[in-house]
Write a structure and sequence with these properties.
The protein has 513 residues and is α+β, with helices and mostly antiparallel strands. The chain has helices at residues 17-29, 40-50, 66-75, 93-101, 114-147, 166-172, 176-179, 193-201, 253-291, 338-343, 345-356, 361-375, 431-434, 454-457, 468-476, 484-496; strands at residues 9-13, 33-37, 54-58, 84-88, 106-109, 151-156, 161-164, 216-221, 227-239, 242-251, 301-306, 314-320, 326-333, 382-390, 395-401, 406-409, 415-419, 439-442, 447-452, 505-512. Helix 4 (93-101) links the parallel strand 4 (84-88) and strand 5.
Length: 513
C-alpha cells in the first residue's frame, strides 16, 4: 500500500474560520496535511496549486459557492480521481442531489459528526490507495511499453487510437496527443488509407485468426510526409467487454536499405566473378595456345605440369632446330598463378625463335636474361634449365640456373651424372654479371635426362615430409627406361596422398638415343 493510505493532503474549504480551525486541528490530529481556503474561488485556486488528495467543501460561501467550486474542480484535467465531500447544514434531498450533480462524491451535514467524518476519510483512503496502486501498475506497464523500440498503437474496433507508446512519436513524428482520438490510418500514406480502413472494418466482431500474430510488411508515412517500410503485427484483446486491437509497428527501412545494399553488392560480386571467370578462361586458352607447341609432341620427350592454381608459373618447351638438334626448356617463374604464368611468356617466344635457328645455349641464356631484366619488376625472376642434345654425336649441353639439379640416368635407373644449379635465375642481374657456361656431357645407350622444378622436390605428404631428391632417386631405382616416367608420377602421387600442393610442379624426362 502506498503512503496515501496513512497520510493525505486535504483541502478544507469553509467561510467560517472557527469551523475551518476545528477541521484543521481534527485533520492534523489524524496525521493529514491540511490546506485551507475561505471561499469557492480560493478553493479552486488552491486546488490547482497543490493538487490535494481530497476536498472537504462547504456549500454556502461568499464569492463562489460550493456547487460551482465543485464543478470547476472536477473540470480541471487530471489523471487521478480526487474525491469531494460536501460539508453543509443544507440537508434536504434536493440539496444532496444538486451537490452530487455538481461532482461531489459524498455528503456530510453540519454540525459535523467527527466519528462519521473519520470513517468516511478512512473509506476514501482505501479507495485512493486502490487508485494509486492502479496508477502505479499502469505506469509500470507504460514504462515497459515506452522502453520497447517498436511503436505500440492500441485502437478500438473502429480503428480509433486510444493509446500509443513513446516509440510511436519517434517513428512517426506525431505526438501522442496528435494521434490519440484519430483513425489509425493516419499513419499510412494517403493513397493507402481507404484500403487500410476497409480491411479494418472487414474484421467484424473478430479479427480473422490468420492475421493474429502474423507479421506483414506495409508502407507507413511520417508526419513530415516521407514514406518508409514497416512491419505490422496485430493482437486482439478484450478490455471491459470491449474489443481492442493492438498493433506493433516496426520501422524496417534501415533493414530494407541494408538488404538492398547486400543484394546490390552480391550482384556486383557476381558480375565481377563472371567477368573474372571469362577473362581467366580467355587467358587460359591463350596460355594453352602458347604452351602446347608441336615440339612437345616429340617421341623422345615425356612431361607433366601440375599447377597449384588455374595457371602454372612452371612451363616446359621443346623444339628441334633446322640442323636436327633437340632443345628442351623447363622454367619456373616467381610465385604461381596467372602472374607467374604471364612472367614466363617472353621466355617461350625467344626460346622457339632462337632454337629454330640452332643458336648456342649460352647465347639463348643471355638473350633471355636481357629481356627478363628489362621487362620484369624487381623481385620477379625466372629459374630455368635449358638443354641442347646433339643426338648424332651423343653429346649435349645443359645450363641450370635457379632450378633443382638435373639428373642423367643410365638404362638401369642409376643417376650416373648430376648437373647442379650453379647459376642465378634469369632477370636478376645483367648479362655481364650472369656468368656461367653450359655443362657439356655425353651419354650411353638408353640413358635418360630428368629435369624438374622445386615444386616436385618440395611436395609434402600429410605429415609435412618433402618428396625430395631421395624420393626421386628411389622412384627411378631398378626401373626400365620405358616405365620410368610413370613410376615417378605414381611415387609422387602416393607420397602426396590427400595433401594439397602449395607450388606448381613440373617434370621432364628426355630420352638420350
Amino acid at each position: 500500500m502506498t503512503s496515501i493510505s496513512t497520510k493525505m493532503k486535504v483541502l478544507a474549504v469553509d467561510d467560517n474560520r472557527t469551523n475551518l480551525h476545528i477541521l484543521q486541528v481534527f485533520l492534523k490530529k489524524l496525521g493529514h496535511e491540511v490546506i485551507l481556503a475561505e471561499n469557492g474561488e480560493e478553493a479552486v485556486r488552491r486546488f490547482s496549486e497543490h493538487s490535494p488528495d481530497l476536498v472537504l467543501l462547504d456549500i454556502m460561501m461568499p464569492v463562489m459557492d460550493g456547487f460551482e467550486a465543485a464543478r470547476q474542480i472536477k473540470a480541471i484535467p487530471s489523471d487521478r480521481w480526487t474525491p469531494v465531500i460536501f460539508l453543509s447544514a443544507l440537508n434536504r434531498d434536493e440539496n444532496l442531489v444538486v451537490g452530487l450533480d455538481a461532482g461531489a462524491d459524498d455528503y456530510l451535514t453540519k454540525p459535523i459528526n467527527f466519528v462519521v467524518l473519520e470513517a468516511k476519510l478512512r473509506s476514501m483512503q482505501r479507495s485512493l490507495a486502490l487508485q494509486q496502486d492502479s496508477i502505479d501498475s499502469l505506469r509500470r506497464v507504460q514504462a515497459i511499453s515506452d522502453s520497447v523500440l517498436d511503436a505500440i498503437v492500441t485502437c478500438d474496433e473502429h480503428g480509433i487510437v486510444v493509446s500509443v507508446n513513446q516509440s510511436a512519436e519517434r517513428i512517426f513524428g506525431w505526438s501522442p496527443g496528435e494521434i490519440i482520438g484519430q483513425n489509425v490510418s493516419m499513419l499510412m500514406p494517403m493513397d493507402q488509407r481507404p484500403a487500410h480502413e476497409s480491411r479494418l472494418s472487414g474484421y467484424g466482431d473478430d479479427i480473422p485468426q490468420k492475421t493474429i500474430g502474423l507479421e506483414r510488411e506495409l508502407e507507413a508515412q511520417h508526419k513530415d510526409g516521407h514514406r518508409f517500410a514497416a512491419t505490422l503485427t496485430i493482437t486482439n484483446v478484450q478490455l471491459d467487454n470491449q474489443r481492442m486491437i493492438v498493433g506493433v509497428l516496426r520501422d524496417v527501412s534501415e533493414r530494407k536499405r541494408t538488404e538492398h545494399q547486400l543484394r546490390d553488392n552480391a550482384r556486383q560480386l557476381q558480375d565481377y566473378f563472371d567477368q573474372t571467370q571469362a577473362e581467366q578462361q580467355l587467358a587460359l586458352r591463350l596460355m594453352e595456345k602458347q604452351l602446347h607447341r608441336k615440339g612437345l609432341l616429340d617421341s623422345r620427350l615425356r612431361y607433366a605440369v601440375i599447377p597449384a592454381e588455374n595457371f602454372s608459373g612452371d612451363i616446359v618447351a621443346a623444339n628441334r632446330s633446322v640442323d636436327g638438334h633437340f632443345y628442351a626448356l623447363l622454367a619456373d617463374a616467381t610465385g604461381h598463378g596467372l602472374t607467374a604464368a604471364i612472367s614466363v611468356l617472353p621466355v617461350l617466344a625467344l626460346f622457339y625463335r632462337m632454337t629454330k635457328l640452332n643458336r648456342p645455349i649460352r647465347e639463348i641464356v643471355l638473350e633471355l636474361n636481357f629481356q627478363l631484366k628489362e621487362s620484369m619488376p624487381v623481385g620477379r625472376f625466372v629459374a630455368i634449365t635449358l638443354v641442347c642434345l646433339d643426338e648424332a654425336q651423343k653429346q649435349g649441353d645443359i645450363w641450370v640456373g635457379g632450378t633443382p639439379q638435373a639428373f642423367l640416368f643410365d638404362r638401369w635407373g642409376r643417376a650416373c651424372k648430376t648437373f647442379p644449379s650453379a647459376n642465378l635465375p634469369l632477370g636478376i642481374v645483367s648479362n655481364d654479371e650472369l656468368g656461367g657456361e653450359p655443362q657439356h656431357f655425353s651419354w650411353e645407350n638408353e640413358s635418360q635426362l630428368i629435369l624438374c622444378s622445386d615444386g616436385l622436390l618440395e611436395a609434402t605428404n600429410p605429415q609435412g615430409i618433402q618428396f625430395g631428391v631421395d624420393g626421386l632417386i628411389a622412384a627411378t631405382a631398378n626401373t626400365s627406361p620405358s616405365d620410368r616416367f610413370d613410376k615417378i608420377e605414381t611415387a609422387l602421387a602416393t607420397h602426396q596422398g590427400s595433401a594439397v600442393a602449395s607450388d606448381d610442379i613440373s617434370l621432364m624426362l628426355i630420352d638420350c638415343p
